[in-house]
Structures are given as structure tokens and as C-alpha cells.
Amino acid sequence: MPHQLGFFAPPDGGRTVVLSDDDMGTITYTPAVFSPEESARLFEVLYGQIEWQAERRWMYDREVDVPRLHASFTERPFPPVLDEMRARVEPRIGVTIDRIGLNLYRDERDSVAWHNDRIAELGERPAIALVSLGATRRMLLRTKPAAPQKRSLSIDLEPGSLLVMRGSSQLFWDHAVPKERRRLGPRISVVMRRPGMA
User: Fold this and answer.
1) How many C-alpha atoms does 43 have within 13 Å on its Cβ side?
2) Are 65 and 56 in contact (CB under 8 A)?
3) Which stretches of the chain are assigned E, i.e. beta strand?
4) Cβ 54 vs Cβ 63: under 8 Å
5) Is residue 66 a contact partner of residue 59, using CB atoms and an 8 Å limit?
6) Which residues sit opposite 130 in a β-bridge?
7) Mind listing the domains of the chain with CATH numbers?
8) Alpha-carbon distance 21 to 92, whole Å?
9) DSSP-assigned beta bridge partners for residue 164
10) Which end of the chain is more exposed for a tag (fewer CB within 10 A), N or C?
């Protein structure tokens, strides 16, 4: 049974929760990095202005729709709204962001399967900062079979929150955002990355 950080816990004023900090990497969660008003504004701007792309990929013996929309920015200058977010996040993680990806989960049926961010592209020790906007969605994390310890976590990613994965986290952890049975509105994840950083 995964250890779950409570969604109904009272707000902690932005205090960072350390989920993992050892040889398997560092994973932290900070609520309210962006205020509710900022989060709502950023969501509306991104939802309306980003050119969201649908994608199809092969799974087993057939081509299927990827259950979310996406966009990516791999060089500066970033669009102003993303540059505003980057300027808030960079001082918190202590690295310079050089690429930003976005995912739009349109409702409870959109999801992302178990995965880790691409080590071949980002290196073994990237810094990855994920800002959540819109509906709260649950993220699951679990260690890979080769990890020295077996652990699993569950956390509700609230709007305006920041999840950071760094160090060896992509070598030893997988994460997923599963489909939900309850009706949910759209969510945007803004994933800021710096390849190869500790």
C-alpha cells in the first residue's frame, strides 16, 4: 500500500515536504508556490494560448491516441507566461531551466502511464520541476525493481504546487498519473527541466 500525503491536510504555507532524499535521488513537494489567484490566471492563459498537440503512438500491435495533449519549448525565449513561471521556480531549485514541456489532462479519463523521464535525452541526474495548475490529480511513485529499496508513494498535486525530482531519481523511480473514476476538470502540468544536473 503506497504511503499517501493527505490532500485534506491543512495548508502549510508553502513548507516543502521531502518525499525521498538518499542515494535513490531527491523528491520534494511544495504546495502554494503560486497563490490560488496566480494559479487560476496562469491556467487560463496557458489553456487558451498554448497550441496544444494531440499525439498517437504504437502500443503493442496498434496505434492509439495518447490520453492527453502536450506542447514543448526547447529553447529560449520562452513565451512570457512560461518565463514568468520559470523565474519563480529557478531560485527554488537552484538551476537554470533550459526546456519546458506541458501536458493538458482534459478530464478524469486522461492519464500518463508508469514512466521515468528519458535518461538518454536528459542524462542520469537531471533536475525536473513540475508545476500543477487546474484540477488536483493524484501522482503515484514507485521504485524500480533494480532500486536498493522498495518504496511507493501517492501524492495529490494541488494547483500552484511544485514537485521536484533530482539527483538519481530518474534511475530509481517511476511515476504515473492514473485515470480517475470521479468527474474532474482539466489540469495542466508544466514540466521544467535541466538535463544532467545533480
Assistant:
1) 25
2) yes
3) 3-5, 17-22, 25-30, 56-59, 62-65, 69-73, 99-105, 112-115, 127-134, 137-143, 152-157, 162-166, 173-177, 187-194
4) no
5) no
6) 163, 191
7) 15-194 (2.60.120.590)
8) 16
9) 28, 129
10) N
State residue 121's pLDDT score.
Answer: 65
At 1, the pLDDT band (50, 70, 90 cuts) reads very low
| CA atoms of 156 and 6, how far apart (whole Å) | 7
| Residue 169 backbone class (left: φ over 0; alpha: ψ -120 to 50; beta: rest) | alpha
2 band by pLDDT with thresholds 50, 70 and 90 = low
> Closest Cα partner for 98 from 116, 78, 84?
78
CB 125 within 8 A of CB 116: no
CA separation for the pair 103, 68 (Å, rounded)? 7
Question: What's the number of CA atoms in the CB half-sphere (13 Å) around residue 23?
Answer: 5
User: Can you tell me the distance from the alpha carbon of 147 to that of 142, in angstroms, rounded to the nearest whole number?
Assistant: 10
Q: pLDDT for 22-81, tens place per residue?
A: 999 999 999 999 999 999 999 999 999 999 999 987 767 778 789 999 999 998 999 999
The C-alpha torsion from 49 through 104 and 18 to 87, rounded to 10°, is: -10
pLDDT at 123: 62
Taking each helix axis as running N to C, give the angle between helix 36-49 and helix 80-93, from 0 to 180 degrees, rounded to the nearest 10: 130
